[in-house]
Structures are given as C-alpha cells and as structure tokens.
C-alpha cells in the first residue's frame, strides 16, 4: 500500500536520475507527489524518470546542477519552490564514493572533493529548506547515509565512510534542533545495493566478499530501499519518527 498523504506533496530528490534516487523519485510519483528530479550529467536518464512519474500520476520538473559546486543545492531548493509553489519534502540523496584511495595516498584535493560532494550539500540543502519549512509549519527531511558509516567501508573508502558518518550524526543533531518546528529529520542507510555507483567504484571481489556476510544472501536493489523512504516521508506512517537512521542492508549490520 502506498502512503495516501504523499499525494501532491512537493519533493526535491537530489541525485535522482539513477540508482536509489531514481527509484525513490518514481516511488513518490506513484504516490501522486510532485517531484523535482535532479541530475548533473545524466539528462536522458532524468527525463525517463520524469516521464515515469507523469505516467504514474505524479508531476515532475527537471533540475540540473553539480552539487559539488558552491550554491548549487540552494538554487535547487529555490527552483523547486518556484516550480511547485512550496517544498514539503527534501531528500538529500546525491553523493559519491568518487574513487578509492588509501589514506597515505590521499591528497588534500581529494579530501576537499569528497567533502564537497557528500558533506556540504547535505548541510547546505537543509539550511536552505529550513525557512520554507518553518513558514509552512513543518516539513520532512530524509538524508542518505550508508552502512559504511558504521563499518568504516571497504578498502580505500575511509573518506566516503566518514562523510556518511557525518550525515548520520548531522541527521540526529538537526532532528533535535528542528523538532519544535514540526520538521522531522531522518536518514536511510543502504547496505550493498546494485547501483551504477556501486558498479563503478566497487571491485567484484569486494561485492562477493560482502555477499557472503549478508544474511539474506543477496545484494539489494534500489527498489528495496523505496519503501523505507516513503515511510519516512509520510506523516501518517511515521509522524512520531525523527532522528533515526534506518538500516536497509539485508542484515549485514544489525543494531
């Protein structure tokens, strides 16, 4: 059953042309939501997501921008509000492993790139959305962490794992700060998920080793994550839930 209270909600999903973001955007569209589909370079894929949303009964607009550049996410929030007249739900999905490097071989420039893609956009987008949510008497933020935030990640991903640990902690801190304003802040923490990013950055032998440790004995799909996002976006389903980091990992890591 799809949450009925998401119909007509105005949503921004960063990084929604591919992978988990695309699946979540389609899921929101199936609920009748209005979705700002954001992409950086994958315009054709974003257009397909927008078309799927429209076919499902939702409404979509396309937004382009590199979240690693200063000012981009603030512009995306403003363009969503301009396109739909408001913003009800912010999903900070955009992020990247970029590459794998041991710490001793990691440059300052790579450190800055990882922070610019995985840390600053989450902070900046939340900061930009808060005034809109306060003006409307509430809102919902769902950030995207990773199982790597708890395990330290695979080889060469220390900065990625640490950046996702920031997202988890920032989610909890912001939830406390914004609870009096009826703004709920939660995060989804995916495990080993079959996405273009995973294919590009994770060696097959590392996936095979992880698979042997997953109790459900399979790699997850982007669609496996959608229900958790919809749950956290729905006031009816999770109105008393805030400050939580929900693990979607097939049992790979259990609280």
Number of helices: 11
What is the name of the CATH class? Answer: Alpha Beta
Q: How many β-strand runs? A: 9
Structural class: alpha/beta
CATH architecture: 3-Layer(aba) Sandwich
Q: What is the CA-based Rg, rounded?
A: 17 Å
Q: Would you tell me the overall average pLDDT? A: 96
CATH superfamily: NAD(P)-binding Rossmann-like Domain
Pick out its properties.
single chain; 255 residues; alpha/beta; Rossmann fold; seven-stranded parallel sheet; two-stranded parallel sheet; 11 helices; 47% helix; globular
Detailed description of the structure:
This protein is an alpha/beta fold and 255 residues long. The chain has a single domain, classed as Rossmann fold, CATH 3.40.50. It is built from 11 helices and 9 strands. The strands form 2 sheets. The protein has a 7-stranded parallel β-sheet, sandwiched between helices. A two-stranded parallel sheet has the order 7-8. Strand 1, helix 1 and strand 2 form a beta-alpha-beta unit. Helix 3 packs parallel to helix 5. The longest helix is centred in the middle third of the chain and has 21 residues. The protein is globular and about 45 Å long.
How would you summarize this macromolecular structure in one to three sentences?
With 255 residues, the protein is of the alpha/beta class. The protein has one domain (4-248): Rossmann fold, CATH 3.40.50. It contains eleven helices and nine strands.
């Amino acid at each position: 059953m799809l949450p009925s209270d998401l119909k007509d909600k105005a949503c921004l999903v960063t990084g929604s042309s591919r992978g988990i973001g695309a699946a979540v955007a389609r899921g929101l569209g199936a609920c009748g939501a209005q979705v700002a589909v954001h992409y950086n370079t994958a315009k054709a894929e974003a257009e397909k997501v927008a078309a799927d949303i429209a076919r499902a009964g939702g409404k979509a607009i396309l937004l382009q921008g590199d979240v690693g550049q200063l000012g981009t996410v603030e512009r995306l929030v403003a363009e969503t509000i301009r396109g739909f007249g408001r913003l009800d739900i912010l999903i900070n999905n955009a992020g990247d492993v970029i590459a794998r490097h041991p710490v001793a071989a990691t440059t300052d420039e790579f450190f800055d790139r990882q922070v610019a893609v995985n840390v600053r956009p989450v902070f900046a987008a939340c900061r930009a959305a808060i005034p809109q949510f306060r003006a409307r008497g509430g809102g919902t933020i769902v950030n995207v962490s990773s199982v790597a935030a708890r395990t330290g990640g695979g080889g060469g991903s220390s900065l990625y794992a640490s950046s996702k640990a920031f997202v988890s902690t920032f989610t909890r801190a912001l939830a406390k700060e914004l609870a009096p304003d009826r703004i709920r802040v939660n995060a989804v923490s995916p495990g080993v998920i079959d996405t273009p990013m995973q294919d590009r950055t994770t060696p097959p032998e590392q996936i095979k080793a992880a698979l042997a440790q997953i109790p459900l004995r399979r790699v997850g799909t982007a669609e496996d994550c959608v229900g958790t996002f919809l749950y956290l976006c729905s006031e009816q389903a999770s109105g008393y839930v805030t400050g939580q980091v929900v693990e979607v990992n097939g049992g790979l890591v259990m609280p």
